[in-house]
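Readers of this paper often ask what the protein records in our data store actually look like. Below, we set out a record of this kind in full and without editing:
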Amino acid sequence: MNWNKYRNTEISLYRYVEMKKEIIFILVAMLTLTGCSVQQRIKRADKKFAIGEYYTAADLYKSSYSRLSTKKDRALKGYVAYQQGECYRLINNPRSANCYQSALRCKYQLQDSTVFLHAAQVLQYQGKYKDAAKYYDSYLEAHPDNYVAKAGKYACSKIEEWKREASRYKISEAKEFNQKRTSNFAPMFIGDQSDALMFTSNRQEKPKGSTKKLQRPSNVTGQQLFQLYQTRKNAAGEWEEIELAEGLYSEQEDTQKSDSTGGKSAGTAELGVCSFSKDGRTMLFTYSKPVNGQDLGAKIYRSERASGEWGEAQEVKLFPDSSITVGHPALNTTGDTLYFVSDAEGGEGGKDIWMAELDGNEWVNAQPLGAGINTSADEMYPYVHENGTLYFASNGHPGYGGLDIFKATRDTTNKDSVVWILYNMGSPINGAGDDFGITFAGNSQDGFFSSNRNDKKGYDKIYRFLLPEMEFFVEGIVNDEQGNPISDAKLRIVGSDGTNSKVNARRDGTYKIKLAKDVKYAMLVTARGYLNDKAQWHTKELKDSKTYTMNFALSPVSRPVKMENIFYEFGRWELTPASETELLKLVKLLQDNPNITIELSAHTDMIGNEEFNNELSQKRAQSCCDFLVAHGIEKERLTPVGYGKSKPVVADKAINKQYPFIPVDQELNETFINTLPTDKQDACNQINRRTEFKVIKTTYKLY
């Protein structure tokens, strides 16, 4: 069983075969219905499957399937299709979905409903979430309490929501580590300096000092065998040439000579998925080597580095029973706890994450992490961050499909038992397909992981990721009420974290100020000859960088300010609800400038007699003042005045820009308006109908 690349099994090989014994016993009897050659081919395929040679077994099942009759041999044909699908699933071949469909057409679900679960998992792996959900439902009808199926169904229903809630991580392919038509995965920094990296790959390379490429095809995957490769950064910070791990390989590695792990025929051995001590001098890695064509499982080996090369490796004993398969080692920072993967009895099923403690030179007290981490599916590729967080890959917890990367922290509030809090790393780290084998650069949130996303043939690639620093700013422009920048504006910002600083606006009135996270802010904007303005906001509960835009239009002290969007009932003085927003702005301005008093004036157009317009405008001004008083402004600070049509507007540049037919400095009196066409007269009358305020005093209650 290839534990360097083999990933998507739900149960161990031993338990898998035991579960199938009864079905196979029945099916063997059916073989008499077929020709002898087909019978022998299926038996041979079953044997290859039993020893983990899935690539070879898949070809045998495929050739057998086409020779079976759908009518006469339907049950057997369904079994063969299912087994072919299992082979493809276990080596991540996308053709597994078609095989499961063939098995379902042959009613294989009547023999084993697991076909629904595996078909659902493969479709979810391929990103076909709606189809996957249907098969999860079919499987749950027979197994309503199955956690893996319930997790898969839940994930399919939440996937669109999860995609919209992507994390802040930024990812890109680490092309310098990848090679076409090969798999490259499980990167790991060598020590805590983050300047050397080792990863697993099935590329064809030449051992150091050799002129010949290693040729090692695998009966499990049909690809080259997996080995460990290393690289390091040069003085310019660039990754150097990638080489086989020094000291673990030799030129005669494909001969019958002993290899560094004590076995024969190193050409059939696979090394990969490694971990290092903090100083980078001790390496633990996964080692797998078939003997006489039979897969005996994986082991963990240990090697020490001396003079730049890795020394002879020794097996790490974790169980008294040496036949138990273990792999994927992960040391914690202090080196006294080893996390690893095994399908040993006592777990939750499939591959589980275990841990052991260092006692002198021996690892003792091996135990599974429990149901908080492990499921009946697979939990693999553990990694321990310097901050103590455990990362791992799982296809049993709710995820995007295939293996997803999770992080786990211990609930310190529960002192009676170990309780884990799980977090799916989310998009873009996770997606459809397999995402696994993460490593971090020291104590940072940057590093590498591996994924076969978007690869039609399922090849793995190494990706880099980084978590940008969250930055917060407030920016904007300070103008006068006509949109002209105020170059001498000053901004004073006060924060709940003790911030108290002053910033001058630029000559064009713009400003930009850096902020801190989780802080309440208040800002006062001032300028000579203008009324003050204020703003308040906070940077709490933010999940990403953010820039707040706050523009200010300061009101002058020396001239009237037109209030936009003040509306009255036609021919009446009652305010409409649409006026409330603008009047509330005036309330805020008066609160921000407590020492001013204002004249609030209303103006009409030239239509109607003077007496009516004067009375109407006075009542309208009073309505505005009444609103302000009702919202807490002292009556003594307000003087309502109705000017009727006695003070027509004098056009400025802003009016000229909006209405080019009105010259700058032109008074919109009756004489001028009567010279215009009707539509332009209406525009001028609309301009004259206005509500304004102007500052009368700036010393209210100062003396």
